[in-house]
Amino acid sequence: MQKTLIGLGAILAMMTLAGCQTAQGLGRDVSTAGQVIQQESAEAM
Q1: Keywords, A to Z (predicted)?
Q2: Residue 29 to residue 18: CA distance in whole angstroms
Q3: Cα–Cα distance, 15 to 23 (Å, whole number)
């Protein structure tokens, strides 16, 4: 029983860390897209 709980805890920890990396990558992608839109709109004026 104790080994099962430790295993589940390890899996949850890995999923949490992977989720943080994914959210951080998404934030960078959105930021880059916003910069491109700003540049394009400035050139259009």
Answers
A1: Signal
A2: 17
A3: 12
